[in-house]
Design a protein that fits this description.
2 domains; 5-stranded parallel sheet; elongated; binds magnesium ion
């Protein structure tokens, strides 16, 4: 593969701002929606090169950019709601090196050829998938990740995490023109603090000289991630411990309540015995002078 490095060096100032590059797949890398179109693994594997290329938004630019990013030791990933096998098949046909995208960096709830159903539905956005990806790459901070997606909700979810979100027009997808327009826009607004709107949370924490806390996904994620099950179970354990502590405290209080009448009961008997003792002592003194 002949990659014209010269063409990409000019992007270095922008590229160096991020260590993790994340793309949605349908309507972003592809200009079609492969899942909604019911495209299957065999369709991708048997498609002519012309047909295949026609499904991508800008395949050659995307391929070369990814190779360039990998050459600069950047991480790349696909975070999609589409079918794993279909996404993998498209990318395997595009990249000579099929290890660039595999199960370590193609994140989707639909493993193999699985599809959604009434009992298995898509989440509202990609919050949990992005958190999962970032946890797999703990050396990369959230504000060093950039995410391209055609759904506004997904972009908002990424921004909440501090990831730079770039909304893609689904009629165009991720193309060289879109990439260059983004860089142009970013360089025009450089120096403008608002351009880093998505990174406000982290900036604030850095200003406070605090270490960035590990982000937690919204609830509902624990189904899919063992680490999070531990976290949520940890919370449950803590709650159970607190409940037990409360129960012990209440028990102590109850035993105090129970103990009070018992002690007063004995005190009454001691008083009676004391009176009897004094009375007997008085009688003895009186009749045995
Ligand atoms: Mg999409």
């Amino acid at each position: 593969m002949n990659l014209d490095i010269e063409n990409f060096v000019k992007y270095d100032d922008f590229i160096d701002q991020y260590d993790m590059y994340i793309w949605d797949f349908d309507y972003t890398i592809l200009k079609i929606h492969s899942y909604a179109s019911h495209i299957e693994l065999k369709d991708v594997q048997s498609a002519s090169w012309k047909k295949l290329i026609g499904d991508f938004a800008d395949p050659i630019f995307f391929r070369d950019l990814v190779y360039y990013l990998k050459g600069k030791k950047k991480e790349v990933a696909i975070v999609s709601f589409g079918t794993y096998n279909v996404i993998k098949a498209y990318l395997d046909r595009l990249f000579d090196d099929t290890r660039i995208f595999d199960s370590h960096n193609i994140l989707t709830p639909l493993i193999n050829n699985k599809r959604y159903s009434s009992s298995f539905r898509v989440n509202s956005d990609k919050n949990e998938n992005l958190v999962c990806l970032m946890r797999q790459n703990p050396s990369i901070k959230y504000d060093r990740a950039i995410f391209f997606d055609d759904t506004y909700q997904n972009i908002q979810g990424a921004r909440e995490l501090g990831i730079k979100g770039v909304l893609i027009n689904q009629k165009i997808g991720f193309t060289k023109k879109v990439w260059e327009e983004l860089i142009k826009t970013e360089s025009i607004s450089s120096g403008d603090k608002n351009k880093l709107e998505s990174c406000k949370v982290l900036e604030q924490s850095l200003d406070d000289n605090e270490i960035e806390k590990e982000k937690e996904p919204r609830k509902g994620y624990q189904k899919n991630n063992d680490n999070l099950i531990e976290t949520f179970d940890g919370d449950k354990e803590q709650e159970q411990e607190q409940e037990q502590e409360h129960a012990i405290e209440n028990k102590d209080k109850d035993s105090e309540k129970i103990g009070a009448p018992i002690s007063s009961y004995f005190m009454n008997w001691i008083n009676v015995l004391a009176v009897v003792f004094i009375f007997v002592y008085y009688l003895i003194k009186k009749y045995n002078p």
